[in-house]
# Entry
Amino acid sequence: MNKAELINVISDRVGVTKKQAEDMVEAFVDIVTSELVNDGEVTIAGFGQFTARTRAGRTGVNPQNPSEHIQIPPVRVAKFKPGKGLKDALKAPKNEAPAMSAPEPAPAPSPEPETPSEPETPSYPSM
# Structure
């Protein structure tokens, strides 16, 4: 999915114009970028966390001249750590992927009390 397709999907799902959806996407990108530039982080519960890290400098090999070693300087890179909701959605089979929305409330307890029953004795496999 590219940016234009994302804008179309947001427009359809939220019920806003494509221009408003484009403004939302642009605002999200601008906010995440400015936070990472300022050493901040952006956490979206259930989805993931965006952070900026500095990747250490190292010695590499010049691809045009493999016998020549070059020094690769340290560089700041963006990192994304997926949240539990995203991980769970990716683990589920494709046709059963849960929607990324608020969790459903737990069912209310039944009004009738349960009658205690005899505890089950564990059964062990015979040898």
